[in-house]
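Below is how a single chain appears once it has passed through the pipeline. First comes the sequence as given, then the structure the pipeline wrote out for it. We keep one example in the README because the format questions we get most often are answered faster by looking than by reading.
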Amino acid sequence: MIRDLKISSRYNDGDYLSKNLDWHVEDSPWKAHQIDKIIKRNKLSPSTICEVGCGAGQILKLLSLNSTYAEVDFTGYEISDDAFELCCTRTSEHLTYLKKDLLEDEKKYDITLCIDVFEHIENYMGFIRGLREKGEFKIFHIPLDLSVITLLRGKLIKRRNSVGHLHYFTPDTAIATLTDCGYEILDTMYTPIFADLPSKSWKAKLIKLPRFALYKVSPKLLSTLIGGVSLMVLAK
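Resulting structure:
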């Protein structure tokens, strides 16, 4: 019980915020672009979009500023006090943030976004099942933390301590998890963050070229050997 409280409280007691000062806002333009891409390539025309665990709220803010979604109503759900404080600076006419658990809300949306969220949640499969009724379509973005390199270098515990990942996935286990929770998979795409965003360390810069080479051969092979990609999934 003490350990469970420690895990859940880190998002409200300043611990997570102290390690991630802007709550990953710098990655939001890239994530918003990936979401826009999968929506357009599947020809979805939503009138409502919500995001569960919206963090600082910047992904929804950027989508709301995209002319494609000018008539869409956006709602962000966040249960962290620290993150919700950041959300409140981003509200607009068609963008609302709620300090509330989406699973406890009766509302349903055309699209529900779950972007880099369920790997943080202890009962992640129960959470994923609960999302099924919250939107006609669900878009998941899932970090693929499990690779040969992360295992050899002991990186998983670092991610647990720094960004709060409790569960780790490969492409196959990510898809299997959603399928086991009752989802129909409509589309998947790999998102190469290593290629699109600046490298944060000299080690990342050094490994960028091998990542590019492997990515051209097979994104799945890259995720298995070195890592550097996540998985975007559209599901019903």
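The two ends are 34 Å apart (CA to CA).

See the next section for the split statistics.
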